[in-house]
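QA checklist item 7 of 12: single-chain prediction sanity check.
[x] sequence parsed
[x] length recorded as 268
[x] structure emitted
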Amino acid sequence: MRLEYVIKDISKYEASEFIQKFHYSPVMPTLTKHFLGFFIDDELKGVLTLGWGTQPLQTINKMFPGLTSKDYFEIGKMCMDDDMPKNSESQMISATVKWMKKNTKCLFLYTMADGIMGKCGYVYQASNFYFGEKYWTQVYMMENGEKLHPRSTKALCKENAAFSGKNKVFWLTTDFMKSKGIKKIKGYMFRYIYPLNKEAKKIMKNNSTLNWTLDYPKDKDLCWKDSTDSKKQIVVEQPAFTFETAKYNLKNIESHKKQTPSLEGFFT
């Protein structure tokens, strides 16, 4: 079924409410330039955010030396209404590519599939993205099942330092995690990119540190390790992260509610 989306910039409030209803993770990216709403018959059916990760310049430079954040957007969040047909997300990506070619001067649309959450990127594969690499990353699984990124553990690190009798710690220690019921989980992230023009394809071929291919990862490539004790890492089944009783990410999850739910003021 071919879908005819009407794409509109929507407010952070509207995008966040939709994402937190339909996305597996309600945690919102902080560096977002566009909150795109995908409408059918004036009804919001999908949301995709465009912006950057926490290190916009470093990310693009690692892949393409010399490029800057103006040369790409990263997909932060993407989700559809549950009643949409199976291939709706790939059609949404195709519509996003057309929108970017018309409304931006970007060379690339970049994204990552979150292997820790069991995602190896099938929707990007169906949309003819190129795959660059997989790499290990680490998150914390809190006692309530919540997924917490290491950069969000400032308060916990202070508590850990006091617990361990140290001035500072930058990673939670094994004894502290065990006392709090916290686990450190390792899993893969998968890099994908879509070139938006001939110049981008040339850069991919001649000026990239990665070998971009259509040799895609599959479910068999997913792997998880419990690295709470770094000296005794254990291969485990996919962790059952949940945000139903979120408290560690609550400030991020509820931040949009402090904003006036209008279109103004969200694009700077």
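[x] summary fact logged: The first strand starts at residue 6 and ends at 9.
[ ] second reviewer sign-off
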